Amino acid sequence: MLPLPCSKGEILAMVRDAAGDDAIAVRIASATADARTRDRMRSAFSRGDFSSWRYDDERARCASDPSHVLEGARSIVCVAVAYATPQPTRAPLSGRVSSYAWSTDYHARMQALLREISARIDARAGARVTAIACDTKPLAERAFAARSGLGWIGKHTNLIAPSLGSCVFLGEIVTVLPLEPDAPLRKTCGGCRRCVDVCPTGALRGDYTIDATRCIADATQRVDGIPRALRALVGEWVWGCDICQDVCPPSLRAGKAASASFAPSSARASTPDLLWLLRLRSSDFRRVFKPTAMGWRGAAVLRRNAAVALGNALDRSTVPALIEALEVDPHPMVRGHVAWALGRIASPAADVGLRRRLASEDDASVRDEIECALRDIAGPQR
Ligand code: B12
Question: What angle do CA 12, 15, 20 make, to 5 degrees?
Fold first, then answer.
């Protein structure tokens, strides 16, 4: 057998070197296909847990077999980089953003890190012997990280690295090199159910599975509207959600070991003023959010999320701004969620604003929302 162009020890050292001051963990997994993960994913998809992502059997088949990332794959270098940072102070009427999105988009940092190592390994081999993945490929990143012993999959379904907690990004260098694999950890969450009990929407079942259609992180990223039944439960989250990880004991023990690369880029992006967000213009969207992980669904989704958060803030001083958005926002989805927010606040001024708009609104879905909101205001409980 030919000698390896670089040993496992050298590759691990390259990763640590490229990571600089960032808090990381790195381990090796074998790249053989994983039939148990394929079957777990198939069951999740057929239950409808991921229907908002339209994942199917084909996704399960590819994601559980790393040869779809690189033909002839033998090993995976699994990397976890910690992103937990202390919560910036939030002013009243500001939205909550998940800490994973506070900094410059993590894909850029992770891909730069992985590319650097991948290029060094390829250069030593004199051929392309690696491929990288971080959200970019259909690869069951958590499953292979767990196989490498980087951590275990928790009841919130995130990978928990013992020294870093669950607030870690995962990235992989898949390679044809036969590196000696590390052993998986023999750990579970045991009797702990904190994440399950605290999730406001009941998305976590407690058996290490999630109904992603109920997850707040999913709701805030949907382009087709937030289901009415979930809106009041979303609270003031305008992007992602940290509730399940904020109570996770290993994550609490790990503390906020912020990797320098993931410090919040601006207060505007990490604790956005909700009235400003409700009126978000394309130019502000491009400047403030495009460089972050909140940049991929567009400005209308953020205005919609601001409307829902304002509805949940139940502050009557925001009603004039909501009525203005109901009149002028060009996007029917946004106007529909604004109508819901006014119905939830249910003040006399909200009632007047909704009735006035109903007289001129010509989008059927928005009219439905306005009529529901008016019914909410007139409802028997008030
Ligand atoms: C789609 C997606 C989402 C969706 C669905 C989430 C989900 N739970 O699958 C939504 C929008 C909800 C989401 C939210 C978040 N996401 Co996301 N997401 C993804 C993405 C792109 C695909 C995930 C996927 O295929 N899911 C389908 C399920 C069925 O498969 P799975 O995730 O691989 O997990 C199953 C298998 O691993 C299997 N399994 C395999 N072996 C074993 C062993 C045991 C013992 C058990 C019990 C199970 C098991 O069971 C797992 C659970 O069903 C991945 C990137 C990637 N390619 O993996 C990032 C990824 C999973 N997300 C990530 C992050 C950071 C988040 C958020 C924390 C962001 C936030 N704060 O808002 C939340 C966490 C919400 C939560 N509690 O899961 C990280 C997770 C890092 C980590 N520590 O695990 C990833 C890996 C991205 C990355 N490269 O860092 N995400």
Answer: 130
